[in-house]
Amino acid sequence: MRINLINIALWSAIALLTGVAGCRSATPDPEKFSSGSASKVRIILDTDFGGDSDDLGALVMLHNLHNNGECKLLAVMSWSGERYVIPAMDAVNRYYGNPDIPMGIRHKEAHYDQWNYNKPIADALPWELTNDDVPLAVDLYREILSKQEDNSVRIVTVGPLKNIKDLLMSGPDSYSDLNGKELIEKKVEKFVIMGGGFPESDIYEWNFDGRMPGVTTFVLENLTVPIVFSGYEVGMPILTGSRFNNIDPGHPLYIGYMHFSRHAPWVKDRFEGRILDNNSYDQTAVLYAVHGGVGVYWDKIEGGYCVTDDRGKNHWVEGEPTNQSYLVLKKDPEEMAEIIYSIKLAGTAVR
């Protein structure tokens, strides 16, 4: 098996789970597998944590990849202002031994959503920080980006894009003399955006809507750095979650996915006392951001750009290459699920 300098420990686990030891690839290609100890991928995660379980899955993946030396998780930004979102993310950070990873929040006007899994995680696990203890996401973005090497940061968005709009519209401050657009162009290598559907979506898509008309259109029209979209159709057939029935009930994945299965409005009717499988939308964006995988996991379609409306619908306009592209799933969804499981469950005992 030729592994193109992929971390051997991780891929040994994947091979045991998926039987991929026979796969081969051509000469090393950084777009196929871009991680490696020689040059850590620097990631900022922007998430609407607490609603869909895949946001929890994405954060857990990044902690395991961070702890395994394959990426550096620079910060986690919350789109949500739900009352327990920072305590819950702080609890997950501490569970994985990373209490010092900075967090930011879009606003401080807290509300409470009982069906969110934030409070159950905060109730079960140690935490110290509240929503009032962390900076606004736009300020933390500016602070973190100003300290990074040029063209070095990958921003992974797995929720609505209001934090990115706020960053684009920000002005010079004590962290940088650049405005937000200039700061992004100087410091960000690429955006990986989970949202929309490709090549076209005529359905309500939350991350492109967020009940914030015009936000996605503004962001896509003003970002000039590379953008890679992982649309809902990429993660929809990749089902993960039910295996967490066999882990410690005190594990954040068990707590979050169980609460989600029991209470999320769009899945609770199927709940029968056990964690349900769920689509792995956000996890695909994390996997691409850290490992690449073009030509192995997915193909990348270039030549054109994404147009959105105010209700989360979008379509791809074919044409000359731009800064935008989108992923098309190539690998079997069940194999992809095993790969994602192997990262989320790294170091976790499974009965």
Description:
The chain has a single domain (33-344), classed as Alpha-Beta Complex (Inosine-uridine Nucleoside N-ribohydrolase, Chain A), CATH 3.90.245. Helix content is 34%, strand content 17%. The protein is α/β, with parallel strands linked by helices. The protein has 13 helices and 13 strands. It has an eight-stranded mixed sheet, sandwiched between helices. Strands 6-12-11 form a three-stranded antiparallel sheet. It is globular.
Write the layout of secondary structure elements.
Elements: H1 8-18, E1 41-47, H2 53-67, E2 71-78, H3 85-95, E3 103-105, H4 118-124, H5 137-146, E4 153-157, H6 162-169, H7 180-187, E5 188-194, E6 200-201, H8 206-209, H9 215-222, E7 227-230, H10 232-235, E8 239-240, H11 252-263, E9 278-279, H12 281-291, E10 298-301, E11 304-308, E12 314-318, E13 324-329, H13 333-344
Parallel strand pairs: 1-2, 1-4, 2-3, 4-5, 5-7, 7-13
Antiparallel strand pairs: 6-12, 8-9, 10-13, 11-12
Helix pairs in contact: 1-13, 2-11, 2-12, 3-4, 4-11, 5-6, 6-7, 6-9
